[in-house]
């Protein structure tokens, strides 16, 4: 089979896969979450097997342990967090009005600093932003109701996800052997190398980035609560959980926390500085220590392309697309890097001489030497 035919077959396979995902996007959530959970827990099941557990018992023990932990955390934290989120939504219009009042109070200083014309533009921009925020807050309850209707499937997802994860974990080794049996024999080592790179990227996404996300949520919630910020627990958890979108968790948490701190603590500006320091210091630690240790270079995707993938998959597949965007972007990154390496090793890049330097003739007509 020619290279062109192989490329066409893989492109057709990719198109069919995307079409199937789009057609079944409404029912994909429990299967996506279940597959991610199975992938995450498979190393624990393998470890229990090494301790002479059968695959079935190992799967049951691991999955039941995880479900017990999740249920315990749900009943422990959800009532408190839910109360804070509801209180925050109710209080947000008041915070916006209070911030407008502070800006009006600071108007003389702003005029002196920026000049009358720029100060007027600044105040207009702040008022527009406040109106947009209030409009968003006004429509938020309706949006939550809509989520409740479309997500009445939450009960179904809660039941289906562990079932999907259980059967995938039970048959994981069989599925891997089946996939290995389908690989073309001539290209099996090369394809296994690509699959190994994809596995490393997926581990970085699901295990590494998932760990970073949870640590972010715990840190922000704890630090903001300890400093006494109103609704600090809710703001911190939301900021941490939004960290799967590059910079969104930081930008959301920083903006909302500074706004609340200005209203709550002013004129004690040192408390506002302390709230800002919580985010700035942690952003440095996450970017230079936490993220490299837990994720490393396994994803190796430019943040701009990652944000594009999130927007594109979110527009195509909704919430399921947001869950799939980062793993699929990691897979595409591996395939693109492999394609670039093959291209650079091909005659299309190296030229007809394969990159070898052809020795120049020295003018001797009897010299018939040519490059191999």
Automatic annotation (TrEMBL):
Keywords: Cell membrane, Membrane, Transmembrane, Transmembrane helix, Transport. InterPro entries: AI-2E-like. It comes from Devosia litorisediminis. It is found in: Cell membrane. It is a multi-pass membrane protein. This is AI-2E family transporter. Belongs to the autoinducer-2 exporter (AI-2E) (TC 2.A.86) family. The keyword Iron does not apply. One of its GO terms (biological process) is transmembrane transport. The chain crosses the membrane at residues 7-23, 29-45, 57-81, 147-170, 217-238, 244-262, 269-285, 305-336. One of its GO terms (cellular component) is plasma membrane.
């Amino acid at each position: 089979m020619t290279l062109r035919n192989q490329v066409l077959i893989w492109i057709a396979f990719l198109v069919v896969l995307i079409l199937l995902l789009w057609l079944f996007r409404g029912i994909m959530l429990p299967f996506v979450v279940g597959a991610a959970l199975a992938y995450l827990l498979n190393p624990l099941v393998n470890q229990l097997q090494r301790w002479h557990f059968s695959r079935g018992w190992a799967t049951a023990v691991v999955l039941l342990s995880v479900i017990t932990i999740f249920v315990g955390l749900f009943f422990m934290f959800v009532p408190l967090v839910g109360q804070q989120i509801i209180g925050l939504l109710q209080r947000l219009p008041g915070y916006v009005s209070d911030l407008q009042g502070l800006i009006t109070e600071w108007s003389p200083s702003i005029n002196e600093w920026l000049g009358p014309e720029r100060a007027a533009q600044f105040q207009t921009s702040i008022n527009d932003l406040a109106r947009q925020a209030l409009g968003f807050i006004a429509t938020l309850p309706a949006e939550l109701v809509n989520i409740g209707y479309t997500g009445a499937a939450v009960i179904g997802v809660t039941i289906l996800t562990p079932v999907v994860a259980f059967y995938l974990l039970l048959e994981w080794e069989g599925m891997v052997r089946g996939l290995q049996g389908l690989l073309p024999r001539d290209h099996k080592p090369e394809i296994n190398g690509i699959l190994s790179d994809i596995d490393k990227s997926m581990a970085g996404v699901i295990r590494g980035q998932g760990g970073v996300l949870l640590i972010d949520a715990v840190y922000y919630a704890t630090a903001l609560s300890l400093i006494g910020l109103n609704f600090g627990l809710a703001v911190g958890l939301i900021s941490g959980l939004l960290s799967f979108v590059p910079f969104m968790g930081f930008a959301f948490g920083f903006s909302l926390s500074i706004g609340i701190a200005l209203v709550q603590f002013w004129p004690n500006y040192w408390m506002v500085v302390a709230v800002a320091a919580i985010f700035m210091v942690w952003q440095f630690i996450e970017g230079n220590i936490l993220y490299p240790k837990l994720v490393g270079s396994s994803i190796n995707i430019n943040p701009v392309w990652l944000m594009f993938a999130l927007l594109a998959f979110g527009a195509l597949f909704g919430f399921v697309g947001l869950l799939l965007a980062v793993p699929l972007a990691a897979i595409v990154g591996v395939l693109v890097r492999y394609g670039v390496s093959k291209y650079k090793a091909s005659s299309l890049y190296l030229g007809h001489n394969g990159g070898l330097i052809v020795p120049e003739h020295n003018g001797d007509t009897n010299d018939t030497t040519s490059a191999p």
